[in-house]
Amino acid sequence: MLEPVNLILLIMLLATGIAASVIRSLLGAVIAYSIYSLFMCLMWQRLQAPDLALTEAAVGGITTVLMVVTIFKTKGKVK
Amino acid sequence: MKKWLALFSVGVMGIVLVYAALLLPPMGATGIPTTLNVIPHYLKYGVTEGGAENIVSAIILNYRGYDTMFETTVLFSALIAVLAVLKREKRELIPPPKYTPGDEPSMMVRTAVSLVLPFILLFSINTIFYGKYSPGGGFQGGAVIAAGFIVYTIVFGLYEATRRIPEISRVATEGFGPVTFFTGGLVGIFTGLNFLTYTVPSFPVPFQAAVSTMIYAWINIGIGVDVAGIFVSILFAILKEE
Lengths: 79, 242
Prior knowledge:
Chain A is mainly alpha-helical and 79 residues long. Chain A is 81% helix and 0% strand.
């Protein structure tokens, strides 16, 4: 019932989602989040929602850039 | 004590959410209101009522037009919030980039971006204009434009980017989405129909299709330009030196 591609995508979604919240380094967390957003984009395509896949691909990249810029502007201070 | 209280409340919330998720109908279920009424109606009347061959486009711009219209104002208020905190960048305060020999930005990256950027923008224009027929539309195209400009800004620096995309060219675009929605929606009111109607049955048939295509293009351009201007302005506001 569950296709292997979907299974891989779901496992990677879980793994990257958990990684984004567990990783201590802010830059690492943002990178994990951007990978999550890429897998989510593939998942939207698998769920036959190409409109959402396009949005996810573009907006995921833009938010990653915005967050990386913010981290460098604040020198990556946690507190 | 505080930690246990937090854990308890998060746990209760999690259990409630999982319980609610289990009550949802499974994917592709039959016999629920969505598959009985909503989807057949969209598939049967979506093209004639919505006026767009891409049913998703007809849904987000016609059946749920108000939702999309006020989403553009939500984006605009997000920009206002960012600018209230960070202020807009000032062109004359941005120093020109000084590169020490051996530390210049890579020529390969700059050449690759210069070559690829026109194609990114071309793809985004294609996405915006064909939103009526194929996956895509104003928001997706605008986000792709913004992504292209953001790549350009990162590689060539803020000084060069604010020269190419000056503030005056963005100010006009940032509130353009709601403007096109209101003007495009007025077509329905002036022909005696509802606000945000795309197909006018009283027009002759070939003219009718042209009018619906033009309203779709107008509104999609509005959303796309709006999204691109807002994202680029937010990036510039964050990037500028204090």
